[in-house]
């Protein structure tokens, strides 16, 4: 993962604006992953979207996307509505339906 603690103020602001890169995900096929050294830090939903897998980079720090004792598993029964942006630290996404833009950081 990129070391976010080494960015200047301007660079850190640019990361928040997607300047570290992004990818459009609009097919429900294989898992989509960011480039080496990056993680997915935000996901904006272009239409109502469901995941078959939403994998946190470090489940010990980020509850909510795997079946763990302190979190809630995200699966295809959870719909994220169009226009919402989800922030976090994800290593991969696999859509069940819908489309989104994943931003890297």
Which class best fits the helix and strand makeup?
Answer: mainly beta
Low-confidence region ranges? 65-70
What is the helix tally? 1
Helix content: under 10%
Major beta-sheet overview: 5 strands, antiparallel
Give the strand order of the largest sheet, numbering strands 1, 2, ... along the chain.
1-5-2-4-3
Q: How many strand segments?
A: 5
SSE order, one letter for each helix or strand: HEEEEE
Distance between the termini: 8 Å
Taking Cα atoms only, what radius of gyration do you get, to the nearest Å? Answer: 14 Å
Principal-axes shape call: globular
Average per-residue pLDDT, rounded, comes to 79
Strand content: 25-35%
Can you offer a commentary on this structure?
This protein is mostly beta strands and 105 residues long. The chain is built from one helix and five strands, in the order αβββββ. The longest helix has 8 residues, at 9-16. It is globular. Residues 65-70 have low confidence and may be disordered.
List the helices and strands and how they pair.
Blueprint: H1 9-16, E1 22-25, E2 40-45, E3 50-56, E4 85-97, E5 100-104
Antiparallel strand pairs: 1-5, 2-4, 2-5, 3-4
Throw out a few tags for this protein.
single chain; 105 residues; mainly beta; 5-stranded antiparallel beta sheet; 1 helix; globular
Summary, kept brief:
Strands 1-5-2-4-3 form a five-stranded antiparallel β-sheet, with no helix packed on it.
